[in-house]
Amino acid sequence: MGNAASYLLVFFGGGLGATLRQLINVTCARCIGTAFPYGTFIINITGSTVMGLIAGYLAFKGDASQPWRLFLMTGILGGYTTFSAFSLDTALLYERGELGLAVLYVAGSVALSIAGLFAGLAIIRHLT
Prior knowledge:
This protein is an all-alpha fold. It has five helices and no strands. GO terms for molecular function: fluoride channel activity; metal ion binding.
């Protein structure tokens, strides 16, 4: 597969991931409110869980082609999850004087994202 095709797979996957991210952020803001960055919180956890599932599958089964890896992991998940938004949300909470929420957000995001990744790996280990 050529470089151009690889970049196109990442491009289209990234677009899908970013669109899903926007959908979740907007939906959370409308349904739950904006006092806490619920959208990014949910995105970080679900993205890490899916990354664990995919990484676990590839590690134990190993039968996904490079184009699928690029499309799913680099493209879709790369567009879906970013910690730049996480950092910005933390800073905004801090700037608003919500230190307790900022600490909860950081600790919860990190702990639950890592737990999600381990859960994904464990699920794949159990299924294979």
